[in-house]
Structure formats: C-alpha cells, structure tokens
Design brief:
By secondary structure, the protein is an alpha+beta fold. Helices cover about 35% and strands about 25% of the residues. The longest helix has 19 residues. The radius of gyration is 14 Å and the shape is globular. The termini are far apart.
Length: about 120
C-alpha cells in the first residue's frame, strides 16, 4: 500500500477548518481505531441549519482539503437532498447532517465505544 503524503491528523485538521469556515455546528471527532471491524479510523460529525448550510459545509471541506493537500473524497453521498451528506476520505469519514436528522440517526450513540472529542469552534451551538 502506498504511504500517504499527508498525515491523517493534517486531514482531520483541514476538515475541521472547512467546517469552521462556514460555521458548522456541534463538531465531534470519533476515534474508531480501537474498535474491531470498522471501515475507517475516524468519523467527523457536524450539522448545519438547512440544506443550503449543509451543502456549504461540504463545499468548504472539499475546497479547504483540496487547496491545502490536493486530496479529494473517494466518495460522496447525499448531496441531492442535503439532509445527511457522507464524505469518504478513506481513513476519515465525514458526516454532515441537518440537526433533526442527526438527532434521529444518533450516530454518536451507535458508536458509543469510540473515543469522543468535542471540537471547539467559533460557533457555540
């Protein structure tokens, strides 16, 4: 397997920067590395206030990561309705929700064994 030019830590920092630039809410990092049979090492979960805000968060993440390290998501799902957009950066999967959809699916609850880190941002929501 080819070694990545950039570290996962740098990718996570850039994703969080992208979320913060458009005032994404309630950013949480889940470390899944010590859980067996996971599809990635980290989840980053955040939410926006509307379809437009969710799409802005997704666009900001893509722009920030692409500009800094020339990386793009391997796969993106959910952009059409923008209630829950999943961005797959292989080792890091980003979930961008609308608030009510995030509460309904409760990803944090499903991955309760993960290590949680709440990310302080410029938005206190």
């Amino acid at each position: 397997m080819q070694e990545s030019k950039t570290s996962v830590d740098q990718l996570i920092a850039l994703i969080i920067q992208g979320v913060d630039e458009v005032k994404g809410h309630n950013v949480i990092l889940l470390d899944l590395r010590e859980i067996e049979n996971t599809v990635c090492d980290y989840f980053i979960i955040c939410n926006g206030t509307s379809n437009t805000h969710v799409n802005a968060i997704v666009g900001s993440i893509q722009k920030t990561v692409s500009k800094a390290i020339k990386d793009k998501p391997w796969h993106i799902e959910g952009e059409d309705n923008a209630e829950w957009v999943l961005m797959d950066y292989v080792n890091v999967v980003v979930h961008v929700f609308q608030k009510q959809i995030r509460e309904y699916y409760d990803i944090e609850g499903l991955w309760g064994d993960a290590k949680f880190t709440t990310i302080d941002s410029s938005v206190n929501q």
